[in-house]
């Protein structure tokens, strides 16, 4: 202790102000002081009520409420059963509708793929038909073998378009 007092006495006023008096960074001497282990704070216990008739009534009331909560009478069990069956029915119905929708979507996808295939085949056939037609050959057969000729200007008659967008012929076409 005496060594500590001498060391602190030799310090200047500014050095003592820098370090708090309670904290020592260096301990002089050959043995460190024995520190007492810190005791853990004890939790405060609530004050006990005197064992009177009031706590007995309170415990009896709690026990009775717990028994009522655990007691299930017949109407309660019936309602719980009905609710469970109804919930199960809704779940099964939901799964059935969902699987039906999934099956329909799969069927639609299959039909769309088939439609695309048919369109592709139709386009290929139309292209092959259009490339196989030789218009010069048709003109040659029509003019030479069948004796067909182009119409002259005076042979062409024009009619006004009617509401039904086509012409019905009820009598012979005049020749003038």
TrEMBL record:
InterPro entries named among the record's database cross-references: FtsL/DivIC (IPR007060)
Classification lineage: Bacteria, Bacillati, Bacillota, Clostridia, Lachnospirales
Ribonucleoprotein is among the record's keywords: no
Membrane-spanning intervals of the chain: 74-95
Coiled coil: 108-135
Protein name (Swiss-Prot/TrEMBL): Septum formation initiator family protein
Start and end residues of each stretch annotated as Disordered: 1-62
Organism, scientific name: Enterocloster hominis
Keyword terms of this UniProt record: Coiled coil, Membrane, Transmembrane, Transmembrane helix
Pfam families: DivIC
Compositionally biased tracts (Polar residues): 9-19
